[in-house]
Amino acid sequence: MTRPGPRYLDPAVPVPERVRDLLARMTLAEKVGQVNQRMYGWDAYERAGGGHRLTAAFRDEVAAFGGMGALYGLQRADPWSGVGFADGLDAAAGAAMAEQVQRHAREHTRLGIPVLLVEEMPHGHQALDGTVLPVNLAVGASWDPALYAEATAAAGAELRARGAHLALVSALDLVRDPRWGRAEECFGEDPYLAARLTEALVDGARRAGVGVVLKHFAGQGATLGGRNSAATELGERELHDIHLVAARAGVAAGASGVMAAYNEFDGLPCVANRYLLTEVLRERWAFDGIVMADGGAVDRLVRLTGDPVAAASLALNAGCDLSLWDACFTRLGEAVERGLVAEDALDAAVERVLTLKFRLGLFDQGGAPARGSAAGSPEARGSQTGASAAGGSDPGPGPYGAGSRGSAGDLGERIARASLTLLAHHGAVLPLSASTPRIAVLGPNADSVEQQIGDYTAPQRPGSGITVLQGIRAAVAPGTEVAYARGCALVGDDVSAVPAAAALAAGADVAVLVLGGSSARSATTAFDDNGAAVVSSGAPPGMTCGEGVDLADVALPAGQLALLDAVSATGTPAVVVLVQGRPHALPDLDGRAAAVLSAWYPGPRGGRAIADVLFGVHEPRGRLPVSVPRSAAQLPVFYNAKDHRYRGYVDQTHLPRHPFGHGLTYTEVSYGPPRLSRSRVDADAPALTCRVTVRNLGDRPAHETVQLYLRRLTGGSSWPRIRELRAFTHLFLPPGAEAEAVFEVGADTLASLDRTLTWRVEPGTVSLETGPSSTRTQGAPLAIAPPP
Fold first, then answer.
1. Among 346, 427, 493, 604, which is least packed, fewest CB within 10 Å?
2. Predicted confidence (pLDDT) per residue in 122-144, tens digit
3. Of 116, 213, 118, 204, residue with least CA distance to 169
4. How far is residue 764's CA from residue 782's CA, in Å, rounded to a whole number?
5. How many C-beta neighbours within 10 Å does residue 6 have?
6. pTM > 0.70
7. How far apart are the C-alpha atoms of 406 and 408, rounded to whole Å?
8. CA distance readout (Å), 598 to 251, 422, 423, 590
9. Of 350, 329, 323, 352, nearest to 26 (Cα)?
10. What is the helix (H) or strand (E) element at residue 710, kind and residue range?
11. For strand 595-600 and strand 574-579, is the pairing parallel, antiparallel, or unpaired?
């Protein structure tokens, strides 16, 4: 009779029982090993002949703890890691190396626990030959959760095929101050929009069989002065009302984990904040996933505790389950022996890590790459969020119709097109004619793939991608002359090349100026020990954005403005395209630019997406996920501030150059007033319908993002905000057509945060407002009666 194996290896046994069986067999050292993620993944392998092999450092790390909880960045490639095509892992080599890691864990440890392989997927898998998607700020500008879910599923499938299990993705931070260098990693400034896109992220990753750790928990976008990893002055109400909304949605959607942010809340770094990690996350929200530290964050606690063992204890007792590059957490065995940590507390963290491994199938697949597991994903959810539409449908594939699925690269290009936001359009310059005789393409971002892909990206193969210049040249008719000059440097005030560029513009029928910023890292960039760019005096050459690159002044650099002025002086119509990772402060461009288009960082194929919109192959459809300031002096300018009827500064307006939700089309669209099915509801059971008719008055099709805002007029238990986004939907309107957007309004739409920090519908009077942006709304009053 064959003796049965351990219960934890039996797939038929429920996961909780498998975890308990395995935990009961573990020594203290093995438990500490399972909450350990100390090693940089690129240190785990080395070149060996024509392939790669595990390093002695990796084998020693596994031996020290009888296993390894997680390995970060086995396939990461970028200037910080120093990994490139000469020595790194492509897709095939990555999958093979992942299998080597798992085989070693199975064969050279007592219990054979697989290793959780953790990878960065901020906008695509950050690995050699991984697809790069547009950055999160561009995703936010698309206002299209369904399209983003598809793209995430495709990117997650790439990650999973290379043997990884867990994706780290920024989703929870908000752009409350665009001086922050990591603005590009945010979906925008609004909690509702971020929450819907966070849900889409978790959904898409689930289709690919990949777990998601949501970054960063919590409030990192609210640091003082837009300074990276700095302090916040958030109170509990602002935290819950604004900065925890996306996290709560992501947890409810099934996120595998959250990453504790670097910033402090109420005097304690998030990784040591029991209120955040235990009271809110576990006790209030019933979250049963893992909490991961941000890189080196536990070691930073030594400044508080004076002792590495006490620092590890502080983080674990607060609710952190898994370290990242920390030496302190590997000393938790000492913490137990010294009585600083109860072994039951360590067991709880180990249980959560093991549970995640079982849920993701590591024990049953041996940790190996999934074979074809991502192919049969369920149908995408509809793109309308909190509403339905009647009267229009997009005739072709795209973010407003079911379309056809493509590769991650195809989906990334669709996001890029959907995110392109027409900020201003004077006259009828756009769309351009493909047969325009002479076009001048100018600017520091016109011919650089690296400057349109953003931070957290792997090296790109030479010749890959499509720049704006290449996209325009491919779009024009035979015989059209396309002249190019860089015109100025990305940063600085050197104007020596401006006259030659202006001369090209003077001889052209139209000039396209591609301005903005760059997060492109290089071999000369200096880095902190967590991978952030180190800025000693001014930004690193070629970088104006990205982690570690905060700006005091978010205006376009002087050289770029000089180029714009010189081109404008020629009389040639100028179209400005902004390739950027943050909303730069814009001066008044009336009379200087015929049109302004924000492209964010649109990804490697962004040049073609931009050309498609410039030449009218696709209509502009993006909407601002952030407010665009006039100057850094007026910050903050986010739209959902508290409504204290502020009259403005004496020397300039306090209003943004372009408001949240703004975006123009190539036609004229009119909105009727909102029509409510009821003018009064009860607070305990509110239900009504809000309808708005939208008409296309022009001769080109329009893709409208109809927005629904809530504005409290009376009542409530705290001072109201000016208005708050609560739903949106998309309409496709052929020329001359009209369509109706229908919003089903219920408790989720009307709820506010009461004095106990609980979301509920409070009695009073509100206005339900609809329109094309946060400042172009019409409202209808709604009375909310108290419960009988």
1. 427
2. 999 999 999 999 999 999 999 99
3. 213
4. 9
5. 13
6. yes
7. 7
8. 32, 6, 7, 16
9. 350
10. strand 702-715
11. parallel
